[in-house]
Design brief:
Blueprint (H helix, E strand, L loop, with lengths): L6 E5 L4 H12 L3 E6 L2 H9 L8 E5 L18 E4 L11 H22 L5 E5 L16 E3 L9 H5 L5 H20 L6 E5 L3 E3 L14 H10 L12 E3 H13 L7 E2 L9 H11 L3 H4 L12 E3 L2 H7 L6 H21 L1
Parallel strand pairs: 1-2, 1-4, 2-3, 4-5, 5-7, 6-11, 7-10, 8-9
The structure holds NADP nicotinamide-adenine-dinucleotide phosphate.
Length: 340
């Protein structure tokens, strides 16, 4: 796909990762159509990018439950980056709120893209959640790669006794499987899926206040602001800016069509490490940061983000930089909230 002639639809564009994908495309001179259910958030996204006004348009889409919600949105685009999917652990009905919408969203975007002959590639944001096997434990030491799939069954993921965390893993696995099944029928485009672990970093999407932070950054802020020191379920992470680059490279590199990538930093993290970085990096850090038992980073297994780095030309950001960039921004938001 030639960047200067590309026109890319980004779904979930007003979300944490989606907005970074939008910015990465705009900075390369690529024309973007940003899809959102909320025109108000869409307009906020656009207002914050006035210098790109001729390169960016907003389209309102319906909920995933409406199979035709992307019909208008795909008109004339050459590529699609499908980031949108429900990501929340505050659910009352996991199947209805997480699993069915995630699958329906993938199906709706792919069916719409198939009807629009201009589409050459669809990049889909999956997750490490669709790769990991919660029962697999070292020793022997092992490395997860993009060849691995979460063994969770559909029945397990919709079980009423299942937590939202497990159900979310099911939502990502079954949505991604839906995409690969669709690709088998050889539509007029190819697909690439990306499986990032926890994604952190500064935000550039419309966030009204700290309470409105996305799930992953909200946890970082809990540590920095002294509310809680949770234990991370997995030690893998990626910077949101690196992940945005991965999405765009996955779209424009012809040779990566049909591939699945794990996009992950080689460094490992714990929330204890977040606490140490904040304590050392900010004058108020030691005093305020959440305290708790010393956390040891689980170094008994690995995740191979190097293949993605090589094939997509990525250079992973150091964890301390990611944490500090985000915390600086969150502190500014807190000050603004106090002043308002
Ligand atoms: N953050 C992470 O740590 C992480 C890690 C791995 C993978 N991911 C994946 O990355 C993607 C984006 O996550 P994020 O952290 O950026 O989350 P986010 O800020 O919550 O953004 C998700 C976007 O998806 C759209 N969406 C959610 N439910 C929808 C529905 N039922 N119908 C239509 N649109 C819906 C929303 O768009 P509107 O409200 O604007 O319509 C929202 O902006 C998701 O696919 C997530 O699974 C995230």
């Amino acid at each position: 796909m030639t960047p200067s002639q590309s026109y890319v639809l980004v779904t979930g564009a007003t979300g944490f990762i989606g907005a970074h994908v939008v910015d990465n495309l705009l900075q390369r001179g690529i024309k973007v159509r940003a899809a959102t259910r909320s025109l108000q958030k869409g307009e906020q996204l656009r207002a914050a990018r006035q210098r790109y006004s001729s390169q960016l348009d907003i389209v309102q889409v319906g909920d995933f439950s409406d199979a035709t919600s992307f019909s208008e949105a795909v008109k004339d685009v050459t590529g699609v980056i499908h980031v949108a999917s429900p990501f929340s652990y505050s659910t009352t009905d996991n199947e209805k709120e997480l699993i069915l919408p995630a699958i329906a969203g993938v199906r709706a975007i792919l069916e719409a893209a198939e009807r629009e002959k201009s589409v050459e590639r669809v990049v889909i944001t999956s997750s490490f959640a669709s790769v990991m096997n919660a029962d697999r434990k070292a020793p022997p030491r092992f490395t997860y790669t993009a060849e691995d799939w979460n063994p969770l069954t559909y029945e397990e993921s919709i079980d009423k006794k299942t937590s939202a965390v497990i159900a979310y893993r099911g939502s990502k696995k079954f949505a991604e499987l839906e995409a690969w099944k669709f690709a088998e029928r050889k539509p007029g485009f190819d697909i690439v899926t990306l499986c990032p672990p926890m994604t952190f970093g500064p935000t550039c999407h419309p966030v009204a206040n700290l309470a409105g932070l996305n799930e992953s950054n909200a946890t970082l802020w809990k540590v920095a602001s002294g509310k809680e020191l949770p234990v991370s379920r997995v030690p893998f992470w990626v910077d949101v800016r690196d992940l945005a680059t991965a999405h765009v490279e996955a779209l424009i590199r012809p040779e990566v069509g049909g591939k699945r990538f794990v996009v992950a930093s080689p460094e490992k993290f714990s929330y204890g490490l977040v606490g140490e970085i904040v304590a050392e990096g900010f004058s108020w850090g030691k005093e305020r940061v959440a305290k708790g038992e010393k956390q040891v980073i689980d170094d008994s297994y690995d995740l191979d983000g190097e293949k993605a780095a090589k094939e997509l030309g990525l250079k992973y950001t150091p964890f301390s930089e990611t944490v500090k960039d985000f915390v600086k921004q969150a502190v500014r938001m807190e000050e603004q909230e106090k002043e308002a």
